[in-house]
């Protein structure tokens, strides 16, 4: 027999009628944990606090402060609707109301008066459906991650095979892949000429790892000769471009874009923009952009890496040599990308190969998972978020300071346990500007002044210092408030609230 306790799901019941909430509680509390909200504002505040714990929302339409549709708007705005199903329960049964509810993401609609059997059955069906969806999404996420990990493992193995024979570090292939990705991303933001997107950049970057695969066919005595090649030896070495391309032509699945890019890169990554490259002497845009970018990356890494025939040049020296056309001619737009990405390239090339490989797996996995809307509700993501929240709550509970957090949408004040006790307020206060306890603690005019100072900040200068008197432990005392405004990363940034600390003046500090 299993010793695990049966999981109890949590349902949020949002209805301004005490009787309706009591009826629903009596129907469901035997099997579920019930959280109640008396209006839409409370419902949004609860979701903001414990959205990860809510398995279902039973939502009324007509409520004070925020109605059911406003709650749905907030759930869509914050993407809660993706992971928390909503059953609308209302006496309002007109077609337009019901259609609007479904358009805003409602999973089901139940009309009052309640039928106990119908409510119970629809609740369990909805919760089980979403739980199954979460499990399936978690499985998909895991499969995507494993696929990316195996892809990168195979690339790493191939790079070591080629570079081991070439007596060079396996970092060369990884450097080419990394720099190709950086240059393509910069190029994508400069022009839409090449129809670059995340998927295409990922394909070309992966294909770049095969650029020197033809060197497998080059005799070792030529490949690893310490010193300058004779004309005959150089002619043999140049054959690796043609041989690599022939290998790609023998690969199955020729219709796959990855194979196409690999062929272009193998054959033409030694071509030059002025037509002085090899093997075909292509000029300008005759050279596919995939080969142009890998060509530039290959030259940069060759200059900055130690070889049997030369020492490594510095990043600055390599850039100067490339820009002065000492290593052949490159497309002017790509040279702009090289200069503008210079700091990023220098930083990324210094990253350890294992770390960079793991980072690439995570980046590609995250980008691919982002294509699935259900991923927002994946169990792994929820566990990570809940762990972060638990850590935050722990440190908050241990603090002996008066700490606060204010969110503007919905308006809500959250205090540390010590702060709530000293101020004589609840730890969480919804709509604090209209709360009588808050009004008795701090003058509303002073509160409005502080709010205005915060809203006048910028993301670059978000800090505010403010002196006033507030009621601490039953008596008014002069205090100093230090706080930081919170801004979104949107363009333009949006003010979302503030975090801060209240300290009382001691002795001579008192003003």
Strand neighbour order, sheet with most strands:
8-7-6-11-10-9
What is the 3D form? elongated
- How do the SSEs run, as a string of H and E? EHEHEHEHEHHHHHHHHHHHHEEHEHHEEE
| C-alpha-based Rg, rounded | 31 Å
CATH topology-level name of the largest domain:
Hypothetical protein af1432
Q: Quick one: biggest sheet?
A: 6 strands, antiparallel
Highest-level CATH class of the largest domain = Mainly Alpha
Just name the CATH architecture of the largest domain: Orthogonal Bundle
Average pLDDT over all residues: 82
Q: Write down the oligomeric state.
A: single chain
**What is the beta-strand fraction?**
5-15%
Task: Quickly count the domains.
Answer: 3
CATH superfamily of the largest domain: Hypothetical protein af1432
Give the uncertain stretches in residue-range form. 1-5, 369-386, 507-511
């Amino acid at each position: 027999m299993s010793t695990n306790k049966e999981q109890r799901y949590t349902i949020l019941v949002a209805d301004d009628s005490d009787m309706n909430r009591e009826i629903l509680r009596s129907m469901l509390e035997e099997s579920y944990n019930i959280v109640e909200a008396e209006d839409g504002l409370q419902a949004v505040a609860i979701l903001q606090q414990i959205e990860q714990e809510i398995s279902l929302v039973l939502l009324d339409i007509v409520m004070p402060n925020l109605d059911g549709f406003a709650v749905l708007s907030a759930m869509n705005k914050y993407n809660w609707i993706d992971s928390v199903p909503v059953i609308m329960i209302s006496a309002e049964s007109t077609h337009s109301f019901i259609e609007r509810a479904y358009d805003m993401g409602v999973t089901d609609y139940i009309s009052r008066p309640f039928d106990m059997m119908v409510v119970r059955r629809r609740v369990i069906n909805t919760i089980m459906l979403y739980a199954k969806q979460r499990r399936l999404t978690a499985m998909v996420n895991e499969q995507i991650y494993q696929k990316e990990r195996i892809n990168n493992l195979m690339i790493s193995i191939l790079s070591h095979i080629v570079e081991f024979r070439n007596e060079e570090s396996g970092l060369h292939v990884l450097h080419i892949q990394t720099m190709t990705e950086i240059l393509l991303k910069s190029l994508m933001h400069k022009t839409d000429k090449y129809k670059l997107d995340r998927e295409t950049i990922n394909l070309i970057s992966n294909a770049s790892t095969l650029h020197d695969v033809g060197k497998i066919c080059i005799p070792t005595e030529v490949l690893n000769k310490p010193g300058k090649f004779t004309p005959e030896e150089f002619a043999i070495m140049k054959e690796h471009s043609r041989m690599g391309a022939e290998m790609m032509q023998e690969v199955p699945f020729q219709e796959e874009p990855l194979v196409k890019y690999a062929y272009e890169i193998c054959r033409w990554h030694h071509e030059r923009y002025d037509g002085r490259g090899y093997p075909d002497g292509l000029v300008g845009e005759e050279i596919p952009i995939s080969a142009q970018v890998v060509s530039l990356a290959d030259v940069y890494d060759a200059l900055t890496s130690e070889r049997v025939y030369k020492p490594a040049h510095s990043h600055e020296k390599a850039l100067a040599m490339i820009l002065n056309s000492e290593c052949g001619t490159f497309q002017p737009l790509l040279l702009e990308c090289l200069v503008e990405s210079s700091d990023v390239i220098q930083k990324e090339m210094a990253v350890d190969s294992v770390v960079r490989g793991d980072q690439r797996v995570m980046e590609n996995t995250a980008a691919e998972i982002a294509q699935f809307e259900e991923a927002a509700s994946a169990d792994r993501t929820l566990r990570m978020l809940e762990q972060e929240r638990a850590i935050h709550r722990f440190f908050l509970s241990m603090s002996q300071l008066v700490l606060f957090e204010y969110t503007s949408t919905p308006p809500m004040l959250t205090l540390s346990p010590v702060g709530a006790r000293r101020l004589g307020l609840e730890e969480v206060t919804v709509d604090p500007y209209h709360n009588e306890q808050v009004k008795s603690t701090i003058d509303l005019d002073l509160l409005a002044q502080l709010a205005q100072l915060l809203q006048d900040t910028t993301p670059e200068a978000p800090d505010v210092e403010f002196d006033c008197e507030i009621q601490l432990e039953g008596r008014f005392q002069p205090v100093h408030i230090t706080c930081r405004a919170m801004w979104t990363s949107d363009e333009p940034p949006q003010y979302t609230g503030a975090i801060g600390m209240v300290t009382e003046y001691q002795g001579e500090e008192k003003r």
